[in-house]
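User: quick one - fold this with guanosine-5'-triphosphate bound?
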Amino acid sequence: MVLAQLGGSISRALQQMSNATVIDEKVLNECLNEITRALLQSDVQFKLVRDMQTNIKKIKGKTSVVMFVGLQGSGKTTTCTKYAYYHQKKGWKPALVCADTFRAGAFDQLKQNATKAKIPFYGSYMESDPVKIAVEGVETFKKENCDLIIVDTSGRHKQEAALFEEMRQVSEATKPDLVIFVMDSSIGQAAFDQAQAFKQSVSVGAVIVTKMDGHAKGGGALSAVAATKSPVIFIGTGEHMDEFEVFDVKPFVSRLLGMGDWSGFMDKIHEVVPMDQQPELLQKLSEGNFTLRIMYEQFQNILKMGPISQVFSMLPGFSAELMPKGREKESQAKIKRYMTMMDSMTNEGNSNPKLMNESRMMRIAIGSGRHIREVMEMLEEYKRLAKIWSKMKGLKIPKKGEMSALSRNMNAQHMSKVLPPQMLKQIGGMGGLQSLMKQMGSMGSAKDMMGMFGGGGE
Ligand SMILES: Nc1nc2c(ncn2[C@@H]2O[C@H](COP(=O)(O)OP(=O)(O)OP(=O)(O)O)[C@@H](O)[C@H]2O)c(=O)[nH]1
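Assistant: Sure. Structure tokens for the protein plus guanosine-5'-triphosphate:
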């Protein structure tokens, strides 16, 4: 098995496991068996593989201590609860410790969040020593057999010596398996220095970017990743407990580039559109040409492929608005109706929507036996889709099999143009950016393993 295949098999096995709602013995065994098979096929020594299996199983029963660090207001406390809640849903037994004695109200906030999520918490109104609270909290929850103990630490408005000293002491006393640096997506270029300062005090092993629901694109995350040499594992997308997503590099990069999820789009084209139609479709899209004909053909593909609900969501724009969930039948009928009107449009001799006027619309309506209102609705739908698909203009058409590498390279190239030069320099120029994105891309499936296997530190 070549290295790329081995990597693929392992990623798939990990991804399957991270998709599971509860990671129990069975899910873990399936994942390990899958990895074992791939390693053996790659001629890795049997003894090595067996030892790996045993070691991973041993670590699984161990309690993980995860310490959160970040500046005040970065969203640390909120993120601690989100992280705990996320893992609770996956079958973990998390607990929260509030070692933030600096901000009045921090304990109340954590207590309130934890109570809402039914997660045990520990803190004190009287004790002013964060190290003492952290140690007591971790010990208490270890005794209670919690397997994920999350320690929230103090923040400050800016990086200052007292904060870092406190963090260092808490870390030394609690010996976390993973330290997570929480950063606000809007900090921009300050991210590098900030993340580096934290990394110099404690061994940051992962980054979480908060407030991605706002206007900020989160470009600073790249600097934080470069400074801490650690992956982004989650993003915060709102104030609520479940507004928390596993980090996915493609939409993140697309957002940075302001292009929508077009690299995912390329993969989707390959899934949905028949092979022989792909080059022509991509060619037309790269010319910025989303015609009614293309819309018609994609409708045909969708209707042919069924079950419609699964296929639909694969093409950009064709999902939420055109076909709300649970109303597949209605949507299918709507598509057929649109197609009849489009047929009548072509029969009428001119299918250019730009040349549409009321009398033409009326003729199309009569020709297809529909109401003029429906013709207008269909044209509106066309405009909406054309707008989404017009983003594909200028797209380079990859050869078969080059998809991932190409989208990665293009992303890096595009990104090097939109990133502030100073940030690009910090990251290590174009070469640094490319390897950073590769690193980010390969993190996908490893992220859930981090807490689990106690990794993440240096
Ligand atoms: N919109 C949005 N708001 C968020 C997100 N994460 C946190 N917040 C909000 O950001 C504000 C600050 O969050 P906290 O969790 O209190 O910040 P903190 O970093 O713990 O602050 P200190 O405890 O003082 O260090 C709160 O109003 C949160 O509700 C997010 O992903 N999106």
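One thing worth noting: The chain has three domains: 3-59, 62-247+443-452, 288-392.
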